[in-house]
Amino acid sequence: MRAVAGRDEPALRTALVQLEEAELLFRTGVPPDARYTFKPGSDRLRLQTSLGNALIWAKGYQAPETSAAFARAREMAGQVEDPVERFSAYYGLWVGHFVRGEPAPMREMAELFLREATARPDCPETLNAHRIFGQTRLYCGDFGGAHKHFQKTIELYDHARHADFANQFGQDPRATAETFDAITLWVLGRIDDSLRLSNRALADAESAGHPPTMAYALYFAGAWLGLVRCNAEAVATYSQALADIVSRYDLPAIWAGIAIFFEGWARWSDGAEESGLAQMRCGLAIEREQGILSSKVS
Fold first, then answer.
1. Which of 8, 17, 94, 102 is the most core-located residue (most Cβ within 10 A)?
2. pLDDT per position as a tens digit, 206-239
3. Residue 152: its pLDDT value, please?
4. Contact 38, 60 (CB under 8 A)
5. What residues have CB less than 8 Å from 158, skipping those under 6 apart?
6. How sure is the predictor about 71, in pLDDT bands with cuts at 50, 70 and 90?
7. Cα–Cα distance between 260 and 256 in angstroms, integer?
8. What are the helix (H) ranges across the chain?
9. How far is Cα 173 from Cα 150, in angstroms, rounded to an integer?
10. How far is the C-alpha of 58 from the C-alpha of 38, rounded, in Å?
11. Higher-confidence residue: 247 or 24?
12. What pLDDT is recorded for position 167?
């Protein structure tokens, strides 16, 4: 059983119910289907991380249920010898720390993931370890280090090996690395390179056909870079596209808050100052309700 991020709401809800029922059966020692043979450690861990991934898109990265699911997965991971089985748990914990703005445990998870992945020859998950390590370095202000790890992610990407990582790790790794590297290059003053890469990130996200990846790219490579360029038209276009994705695939409320904020900024920038400011405040309020630390501004 596997929950696929970005599916329509009925399919996701059904997957969640199936995972929760199977977890209950595991606790009682009864396999959920007698046709299958389950390994006590790795199969329980796979089930738990699948539940965590489903909860990311049903309730959000920062939801207590999501954090609890991945925390339990990490406890289980300590009983599994194969580190590959632990990588999804590491990612789930890392992303929770990332959106809540918790640098120390975020760095711990990123370093652990990268160390264990690079210790295994030709490990497919190495590129995702570089991706989250790059995001951690970006968060901590090491822009040169972040760029290096994002470029390593892009270099290692192989569609045949990594296409399914969008479901295992929340987003397509190449499109997401391109998205955050575009931001990194902007901060480093490489404006033309940043804009070229942002266009490539948006194209690769659309090609991936994975709604959460498309949301990330529209947010950061689209609306965010449009805002720092003071390009109201670009912000309006990308925020509307993000709002459409949120509505079509019923993504968590945080994404609705982000779209509303940027739509408000575009309106404010075009002269509708009062209504635009009210809309921005509404978007920030939604993000605060979702526990996103980065939205807590005065």
1. 94
2. 999 899 899 999 999 999 999 999 999 999 999 9
3. 97
4. no
5. none
6. confident
7. 6
8. 9-27, 42-59, 64-77, 87-100, 103-118, 126-139, 143-156, 159-162, 165-168, 173-187, 191-208, 211-216, 225-228, 232-249, 253-269, 273-289
9. 10
10. 27
11. 247
12. 73
Residue with tokens 């370093």: 111
pLDDT tens digits, one per residue of 123-147? 999 999 999 999 999 999 999 999 9
CA distance 202 to 191: 17
In tens, the pLDDT along 87-116 reads 878 888 888 788 778 899 999 999 999 999
Task: Check pLDDT > 80 for residue 22.
Answer: no
Q: How far apart are CA 240 and CA 235, in angstroms?
A: 8
Higher pLDDT, 6 or 32: 32
* Neighbour tally for 191: CB within 10 Å: 12
> Residue 188 CB: number of other CB atoms within 10 A?
15
Amino acid at 265: W
3 state DSSP class of 87: helix
Handedness of CA 116, 119, 123, 124 (dihedral sign): positive
Taking the CB of residue 41, how many other CB atoms lie within 10 A of it?
Answer: 16
Lookup: tokens for 135: 């995001």
> Checking phi first, is residue 271 left (phi over 0); if not, alpha (psi -120 to 50) or beta?
left
Q: How far is Cα 263 from Cα 235, in angstroms, rounded to an integer?
A: 7
Under 8 Å between Cβ of 211 and 6: yes
